[in-house]
Write a structure and sequence with these properties.
Elements (H helix, E strand, L loop, with lengths): L1 H11 L12 E2 L5 E2 L3 E8 L7 E8 L5 E5 L6 E6 L5 E7 L13 E8 L6 E4 L2 E6 L5 E8 L11 E2 L2 E5 L6 E5 L7 H5 L4 E4 L2 E3 L3 H9 L4 E2 L8 E5 L1
Length: 233
């Protein structure tokens, strides 16, 4: 059945153009790839209460190695290490003379790192953003919210989240899912189509219309641990 819908994709010229949602502290570079060294870009969408961003401290999650921050025109960059010499945090510090009078800029901060071999997982980078107003007042926002601590009446601001995908090639790829996935958009937002047996999913509404109109094909809405799937990119 996957060949049937693949042929329809080719004939109609339907290709996926993913819609990216950006949080206040986001990962505009897109998903990462398991067991791969790559450059990840973090976006700082705004300052604090009208004040410009002064420092950004980002914690590095366990399993992430070979951390080397990319030099930035934001300011000086430094790292913190544990007793074993592993980088556990990256700090960007803006020079006093470079502080803006108000919150008018979007900043990109990049880190080159190696992700763990854990495909179909999400890594969280707790981040602490400090802003400095023109009168010298400092304000810090802690972007540390994860699914594990998102409860309560005042949940913390969400931490930057990076979806980790398996290494793949253009065309068809076969994967085995290690754990259940209830939101397929989370890990397949840039795929053309995903197949499990005779069920298919696509983040593209036009492609899903073709899936629903194809005899013998059902809509794929979730995956269970150890499911084998075919994904076309």
């Amino acid at each position: 059945m996957k060949r049937t819908v693949a042929a329809l994709l080719a004939v109609t010229g339907v290709f996926l153009v993913p819609a990216l949602a950006h949080a206040h502290l986001s990962v505009p570079s897109g998903p990462g790839f398991a067991n791969t060294t790559q450059e990840i870009v973090f976006g700082v969408g705004h300052g604090c209460a009208g004040a410009d961003t002064y420092t950004v401290k980002m914690e590095i999650p366990a399993g992430v190695t070979s951390v080397r921050p990319v030099r930035s025109d934001f300011g000086k960059v430094s790292v913190e290490k544990n007793a074993e010499g592993d980088v556990i945090a990256v700090i960007w510090q803006k020079a006093e003379a470079d502080l803006l009078e108000g919150d008018i800029s979007y900043y990109k901060l990049a880190v080159r790192l190696k992700l763990p071999n854990q495909p179909f997982t999400t890594l969280y980078f707790p981040t602490h953003q400090t802003c400095k107003a023109a009168d010298g007042t400092l304000t810090t926002t802690h972007w540390i919210g994860t699914p594990a601590n998102s409860g309560g009446s005042e949940p913390p601001e969400p931490a930057p989240a990076l979806q980790v995908l398996p290494a793949r090639k253009a065309g068809w790829n076969r994967f085995t899912v290690p754990a259940a996935i209830t939101d397929l958009n989370l890990f397949f937002g840039d795929a053309q189509i995903v197949w499990k047996g005779s069920a298919a999913f696509s983040p593209n509404p036009a492609t899903m219309e073709m899936v629903n109109a194809t005899s013998g094909v059902t809509a794929l809405t979730a995956l269970q641990a150890n499911d084998e799937i075919w994904v076309r990119y």
